[in-house]
User: Fold these one by one.
Assistant:
Number 1:
Amino acid sequence: MSDAVKFVLDESRLPRSWYNLQADLPVPLPPVLHPGTQKPIGPSDLAPLFPEELIRQEVSLEREIEIPGPVRDIYRQWRPSPLYRARRLEKALQTPARIYYKWEGVSPAGSHKPNTAVPQAFYNREAGIRRIATETGAGQWGSSLAFAGALFGIDVTVYMVRVSYNQKPYRRALMETWGARCVASPSMETESGRAILALRPDHPGSLGIAISEAVEVAAKSDDTKYALGSVLNHVLMHQTVIGLEAMEQLEMAGDYPDVIVGCTGGGSNFAGIAFPFLGAQLRGGRKVRIVAVEPAACPSLTRGKYAYDYGDTAHLTPLVKMHTLGSTFTPPGFHAGGLRYHGMAPLVSHVQELGLIEPVSFHQTACFQAGLQFARTEGILPAPEANHAVVAAIQEAVKCRESGTAKTILFNLCGHGHFDMQAYMDFMAGKLTDLEYDPTELAMALAGLPSVT
Amino acid sequence: MSDAVKFVLDESRLPRSWYNLQADLPVPLPPVLHPGTQKPIGPSDLAPLFPEELIRQEVSLEREIEIPGPVRDIYRQWRPSPLYRARRLEKALQTPARIYYKWEGVSPAGSHKPNTAVPQAFYNREAGIRRIATETGAGQWGSSLAFAGALFGIDVTVYMVRVSYNQKPYRRALMETWGARCVASPSMETESGRAILALRPDHPGSLGIAISEAVEVAAKSDDTKYALGSVLNHVLMHQTVIGLEAMEQLEMAGDYPDVIVGCTGGGSNFAGIAFPFLGAQLRGGRKVRIVAVEPAACPSLTRGKYAYDYGDTAHLTPLVKMHTLGSTFTPPGFHAGGLRYHGMAPLVSHVQELGLIEPVSFHQTACFQAGLQFARTEGILPAPEANHAVVAAIQEAVKCRESGTAKTILFNLCGHGHFDMQAYMDFMAGKLTDLEYDPTELAMALAGLPSVT
């Protein structure tokens, strides 16, 4: 084992291809169904929303898909991202475990999201598209697409969940500095938004509603496409640069993970770090435990149902088979807004059904406590979403201390918390509580799932 | 010339020594004077404030001072920092100039300040010190020392200029997440603070007052030392890792600067990028134009007097010869709080007197406009302080376009603007105006300079 703390890959070793887990699945993904006919959809059904190349990637079974040159050129601004050995954290925990973390906060937008925002903007631009509509919760995805849009000259409109729009004006300002237009959702700009505001003028919004608005805009317009920051197969695949780099960096360190930890909202940063290792395992390589960490207040993997469901509230999206809390479920307002989604990526759900990953959940105060310990040892202040990975990694390291085993733990630190200081202030002031979802609402949302199998 | 956009130094090429410009000065620095006797001070006069090794570095004439191993170990977390070729900005400006920028926002605290916070905390820790008092304006220095204190187990108290304390709660929260105590200055904790509050209970504070408070605490306590984030010789020297790395990176690029640009408040990030190149020039190397950029509303280099003055308001510090607006001068409240200081580093002032650098000044709206253009081309959102370097670099590049000359421009992008979004929002909303200092106040402050020559 190397005694270095930072493992930097030379730029020449920036991955040339993304890794597509679909190539190695022992059982293929269930088909995506048309919301009207409930029959499997074809590429033409998605054409109003996405450029052809992204649709091709969504269903591709090729193991490797080449990263275009212009995308690699932009990746190079912050990639390969560093892999760190968390020696100061290890010491504080008095653990024999070796803890490594991949640090995605070095991107201009401060999270892993530009890994897919950049290729999505690129493929749209290649297809002649000049406008993209999207949604955002806490704002990490919206700001990443705003950044990518600025680089490719694409106008970006972001429907931002209203409660976040009001609570996080600085995230909104960040999108605007990159030239994007940011609209509070539900808005009066779409039928979906107007219908909801008619029922409840002060509706706080949800990711499901914001997706409906952005999809509607794209579907109705000839010159606008839609972009999603997580959930879809091609989005998860773009994130595999994280795990592919980590594999090479751990090789530099002379190590290999026993446990991989990632936080899961829609599933993209988790898939990014885990899928390349999972693929290696499926091809006969070393087995690795993979832990998916979700918020206890929005527990799609641990308490949801594996069923066909809509990705949005207005039921404009296709039906996908996933772990879901039901598209009408509204999670309570905990701070990790990027994890407040009723569903889960079909690929992540599928590998959980195959028994290849372990889901766990944590409440938010435990996550912030872990984030503070991480900041005071490793020096980096994580985003509230990333704190879910931190707390689970710490828990694994503590288990190692208790059992006296020196395991190798790898986790993805998906973003920084610079735009989440209010949450840290509330936590340090003792004002933050653990929020619970409403079990009756969850039961109703699950009972209302579409009757498709 | 290389066609790469990012130049990454291997960790093995992290500088092993800081560069001390004092070794190469054609004329030595004027002596520092005791505030009581007005005679040159000796090391023992500084002993209540600083550990011995930092006092030694302050007056050293050695060209290279070795960076201790534990400091290099922490530097490695984010150093060598990347050097970028700003190709997208060049294209937008249609300039034949080659623009390079060194990016210091990759540190955990988001600016160049940890380059000196870490060694300062280290030397204090080596001397057995467990508590440090300091001041901060916008908060970049305070948060950097908080970060360094957390790593070395040193309790940090930060006296933060009250107006910033109230306007920037998130910067304060960042210090607290790293375990520092942050106090609004003027405070009731010190004689200096109480005296000012007695005269004006709602005093907004200033860097000069906050320095008085921190110095007083250190001077009166056996177990507490003081730390300064800029101005002093040893602080500027610690920052030379920036320029030393940039030299090697430009060599990788096959290039050498014709012009170097840095923003100047106290002078440390400017010295960090410029002094290694200036030293090479003084030793017979290639001549380079060096441009120091300051805010038009706090113009110590362009409108101040080169004279002996105090570093603080309560006149507790020694007298240093520098460009100063007078220690009673209160700059207007523009957004680049890190540049709101009445004085300038003696070393920067000295090389200006020797005709080795060119000072220029800009108003804040021009700076924010440049920052926005930078964000939309290069993707990185600069701090308001850094925007002063951006605007001057752009101006140099535009001159190249107009004259058709392909010069090489290097500037230091000293930090990110993630904690300055309110300023960007105000600018984008058209609410930001150019602030002017009060010429009568400046004349009075200059008239009140101590009569020492």
Number 2:
Amino acid sequence: MSEEIVVIEGDGIGREVVPAAVSVLEAVGDFEFVEAEAGDAVKEETGEALPQETYDTVADADATLFGAAGETAADVILPLRTAVGSFVNVRPARAYPGVDAVRPETDLVFLRENTEGVYAGHEDRLSDDLSTLTRVVTTSASERLAEYACEYVEEQGNDGFQVVHKANVMRETDGRFRDAVVDVAEGAGVETEEVLMDAFATRVCLDPTQFDVVVCPNLAGDVLSDLAAGLVGGLGLLPSANVGPDNALFEPVHGTAPDIAGEGVANPSAAILSAAMLLDHLGYADEAENVRTAVESVLEDGPRTADLGGDADTEAVTAAVLDRLD
Amino acid sequence: MSEEIVVIEGDGIGREVVPAAVSVLEAVGDFEFVEAEAGDAVKEETGEALPQETYDTVADADATLFGAAGETAADVILPLRTAVGSFVNVRPARAYPGVDAVRPETDLVFLRENTEGVYAGHEDRLSDDLSTLTRVVTTSASERLAEYACEYVEEQGNDGFQVVHKANVMRETDGRFRDAVVDVAEGAGVETEEVLMDAFATRVCLDPTQFDVVVCPNLAGDVLSDLAAGLVGGLGLLPSANVGPDNALFEPVHGTAPDIAGEGVANPSAAILSAAMLLDHLGYADEAENVRTAVESVLEDGPRTADLGGDADTEAVTAAVLDRLD
Ligand SMILES: CC(C)[C@H](C(=O)O)[C@@H](O)C(=O)O
Ligand SMILES: CC(C)[C@H](C(=O)O)[C@@H](O)C(=O)O
């Protein structure tokens, strides 16, 4: 029986890089692909950026590969994270040999809380002058994330992880987050190092090798993983996984790139690396490794798209990856 | 009549770099210095990190020069910002010729909202599992910041500024912030560019010259200015000003540096550059420029402290700055 993978191209270069990633998945496995729609284009047609049908399809699938959405990004991706029950957003940020990077020694993974913090989104307009947002932190979500982090570092053979927070200011909420995460880690015999969110931003620029697995609240994970993207040369190469208990959604960290959309010149690497994370999630570790190695090899000395200083198109890069699969 | 400047050394290297900055102020002007205490040390003695007397002295002064506080940093600096009625935290982040930097072309100023956001600090423990924090955004504080930003860019001869926010997620609160800031700028004929907080983190690493004056909510300003500190080589060189309607507090962005505190080897540059901002604030523009030029000259080819790869001590660097004053 083949697994069902939902495929949502979305908008912009999502329509170019997702088909590239699907062709790689087809080359290494036997999957059933189910197409679904979300984003600006479907909103223009139907009035809804995320049709209920798409939500349900994603919720029922084994895994989803998502491209990008334009103006409607938040209306699409935040509910889709809920659809897969995702409690952690896994964001590896590493530099690749052969690719220009501000900090070529960067090799980090962010484990971002994916359900609460400021994203819980209770906002109120209290007066003409004043609005509030209720930031939510629970011990249960923090523990859940920490349990995942402990398993993750054990699998990777790391001793421990860093916990980012701003508990010197958000004493009750980030204090709760920090305590819950540190407690779980202590119970599991996993080491932790606490780093204030602002200090992390300075230190990661000065020396990213100080960090390996970085556990963060939701917004901190959003901003600091994008910072790490800057250090490795841009969003173009970063995959991500929104992981839930028995479902997950994979997406390149980049957006729709309206400046180049439609020209067939987008870099498919982040989408293909997201497909590799999807393979890992479905238990195809060898296939995942095969794909990653092929992408790395192409990045090192294969054809490259304009964002990496080359003039190859999406198709040529994808063909090179397919060609270098084992 | 000479202005009254309150001096708070605080803890750690604050006790070394503040006297250095005071000696520079003494060399260029005629000020009355009033010493006050705050931080870990005074807390150990008296039980209070910020004695009421210190608060009142700062509130009544023309300006304050503050060093650093240790564990008690938040208990000291947040109320002191209130004491001077500070609505904006001005944080220049620039690289200096002669100093190693990840991005030597960085030359930015952050104008950070200094009264609200998550720092407004209404936190509640709602159950054993759940805590909340109420993030506060007002049109009035946002407008106030924007008015300052408009004056600032006009004085500096810039066309406009960047507005950082995360209004795609915090629609009501950061939407209010963005709208208020953009409206004020439009009214003043000042250009604005909106940048999402996460996108800013990526883009500033890739090319900091895209930005000049960056207007941010409180926490965004905290994290993104520390990120810029990483790009220019660390916190060691960054001054800052907490500006209120007719009072202000100046502080190096660095902390107490417990690893080197007491050894007399701390880099006094950030404290001296903070003193230069203080001179500007008091209307001594020529003296401020004189101090800045001397610091830059020493950074370029003078004696340097260990953090910049040298072996000079605080005294030698301070003497060199004094020596190079016009
Ligand atoms: C589009 C936006 C809502 C989203 C987020 O803030 O999580 C994006 O920045 C991301 O990181 O996936
Ligand atoms: C010490 C802390 C409360 C403070 C802040 O978060 O504002 C510090 O990080 C700063 O930026 O001055």
